[in-house]
Write a structure and sequence with these properties.
Blueprint (H helix, E strand, L loop, with lengths): L2 H22 L4 H19 L3 H9 L8 H6 L5 H6 L13 E6 L7 E6 H17 L8 E5 L8 H5 L5 E5 L4 H11 L3 E3 L2 H13 L8 E4 L6 H11 L3 E7 L3 E6 L6 E3 L4 E6 L11 E7 L10 E9 L11 E8 L4 E2 L5 E2 L9 H5 L2 E10 L2 E8 L6 H14 L6 E6 L14 E3 H5 L10
Parallel strand pairs: 3-4, 3-5, 5-6, 6-7, 16-19, 17-18
Antiparallel strand pairs: 1-2, 7-8, 8-9, 9-13, 10-11, 11-12, 12-13, 14-15, 16-17
Length: 441
Amino acid sequence: MTWLGGKIMGTLDGAWNLARFLSEQWKGPDELRKLQGRRLEKALELSYSAPFYRKKMDAAHLRPSGGMETLQELPVTTKDDIQRDPDSFLSSLRQETHVSHETTGSTGKPLRVLMDRKSATLRTSLLFSNLFSCGIKPFSLTAKLVFKGNSGQYGALRSYGILPILSLDILDDERKNLEIIRRAKAEALCYYPSATTLLARANLESAKPLRLKRVLSGSELLTPDWRKLLEESFSCPVFDLYGCWEFGSIAFECPEEHGLHVNTGTFFMEILDSRGRPCGNRPGRVVMTSLSNMAMPLVRYDLGDIATWGGQCPCGRGLPLIKSLEGRADDMVVLPSGTLRSPLTFRFTDLECVAKGILMYQLVQEKEGLFVFRYVPSAIGLPEGSKKYIEKRIVIACLGEPVVVEFEEVEEIKRNRRGKLDRLISRVSRRRSIRAGGGPS
């Protein structure tokens, strides 16, 4: 097949998959479970061609065609497992052509995930379906904040003639970026809320505030305070998206605001406790199984995120629902008593705090009983009253356990290599495994 023929076929496949995903989300829960069950059986049979999973299944005397029964008997796969021997995760059925996505996470150690072309097309189609479900129009311009060398990330999508993207440097002056958005007449803005909220504050201070039709938030936890600021500044609804480099789009916020709908077309998602058992309606670790990647199947892969299942959504979609995302497991705060606390309980993004002297902050748990609040001050500086307020908030979040809070004024807080701003870093939970016991409080 010629290059042009392959391009046309890829575009047609993408369009067909997009239509399938948009339609499939309206199927009933039982029908979707049956679809996933059949896809899971095929995925496990495929994973048996990868040495890592063949060894696991043979050792446990499991049948590759066993579907859910086999899946639940398999141990969780970690990032360390893949980094130790990445070739053992490659399927013998993989095609020669593939694309790769690389992630580092909190360890800074790279992890490369390979995909076959069909899986990559499915991943793109799924992203499109999520964006369209959140109200993004196929041909409307969306402004996206990108970090340094990532500005070409959406070039392939633009070549299809849909979802045109206006790339803005996340490190540029907010007033400059607002003017670029205004001149280009972009209708939507995405992703990092730590960056879009800076635009929102600058927008509120401008003589003629910019209005948008949608703001999409992703890659970081969207707090209620951030959501409120974005909605008020840009006079439009805000939608949260959940995804990762290993699997792509995982979930999108229901337009009726009941939670995040989990995609079922390309992966199977579980929420497990520290012993690998389903959590029910309690918070647990997000574990994913690929249903479409023929190059590098991942089975029961631990994303390191903490989430909670929701109930059935009244919007009519049959997709499963996430009630809440708690953050990264390796950023769970470990209290002196050993109790774990969600990063969400340590957020200081409310306007009252910002107005009293903080432009940007990062909370670092150095020890079980020691927190360092690093901040970039505004022109007025951070008064003692605000420090006492922040310290009180941290003590309350720590359930009154004995902790010390220190303040460190800095000129800059750098983003990580993906452009994210790490609001909370727990050096304690990164030194010890959450599997040692307990779950999030």
